[in-house]
Amino acid sequence: MTMDTEPLDLRPERSKCTSEFADNDKRNNGACNAPEVMSKRQMKKMIKQKQWEDQRELRKQKRKEKRQKKKLERQAQLGQNVEGIACKRVRREIHPSTLHIIIDCSFDHLMLLQDVKKLNKQIRRCYSENRRATHPVQFYLTSHGGQLKSNMDEYDKGWINWKDIHINSQHYKDLMKSEDLVYLTSDSPEVLHELDETKAYIIGGLVDHNHHKGITYKQALDLGIRHAQLPLGSFVKMNSRKVLAVNHGKLSV
């Protein structure tokens, strides 16, 4: 007797574990492909950022207009006189003086560094005032070097580009004739009542708090140079010695 037999399925049986992994992969892939839902807060932030980007050029134009407006206001103020009447700005005319003013920096070795720094500030003030003057003098620094030069190099390297000033390492007696020099010193018995524009007036570049009294007067005597003191007593009441700072001496002249 013949029996009908079904063909055997020889394929490996799919395990339950494998089936579960496959189902999980499908679910995961589905989750990855699903569009991400954006919150209201994120949506508002994105809209705000887009508006900011869209208005970039507008903000730039407003800043430009604001700068232009301020510029026009400044020009309008400069173009008005005290009474508010429009007037043209008159360029300041400069007429250089033939008067020579020399700051003698040969006392560098007698000063502490802190005093050298003060001298440096006084010289800068003199230079600044002379540059702004309508009748600037012929301004000289002589015996320039030592601590003063080092201090100027350290704190104000732009001094090498200063204009309308003669800075020289030589002593003033090597630059000008003795008969053309007048040393301004408070210890001189002679009072200067009138300036002679053919002369060069020397101011001692010394900040010493009266530790070296009479040193500039002595130098003038030793070198055979004329000396004089400014007539401060006639204009200013001073209880102490008539010793001025370097910039005060120059401004007084």
From TrEMBL:
One of its GO terms (cellular component) is cytosol. Keywords: Methyltransferase, S-adenosyl-L-methionine, Transferase. It is an enzyme of class 2 (transferase). The keyword Protein transport does not apply. Residues 1-76 are annotated as: Disordered. It comes from the Eukaryota. One of its GO terms (biological process) is tRNA N1-guanine methylation. Residues 59-72 have a biased composition (Basic residues). InterPro entries: MT_TRM10-typ, MT_TRM10-typ_sf, TRM10/TRM10A, tRNA_m1G_MeTrfase_euk. GO terms for molecular function: tRNA (guanosine(9)-N1)-methyltransferase activity; tRNA binding. It catalyses: guanosine(9) in tRNA + S-adenosyl-L-methionine = N(1)-methylguanosine(9) in tRNA + S-adenosyl-L-homocysteine + H(+). Gene3D superfamilies: 3.40.1280.30. Residues 86-253 form the SAM-dependent MTase TRM10-type domain. Residues 8-28 have a biased composition (Basic and acidic residues). The active site is at 208 (proton acceptor). Its EC number is 2.1.1.221. S-adenosyl-L-methionine-dependent guanine N(1)-methyltransferase that catalyzes the formation of N(1)-methylguanine at position 9 (m1G9) in tRNAs. Probably not able to catalyze formation of N(1)-methyladenine at position 9 (m1A9) in tRNAs. This is tRNA methyltransferase 10 homolog A. It comes from Aquarana catesbeiana.
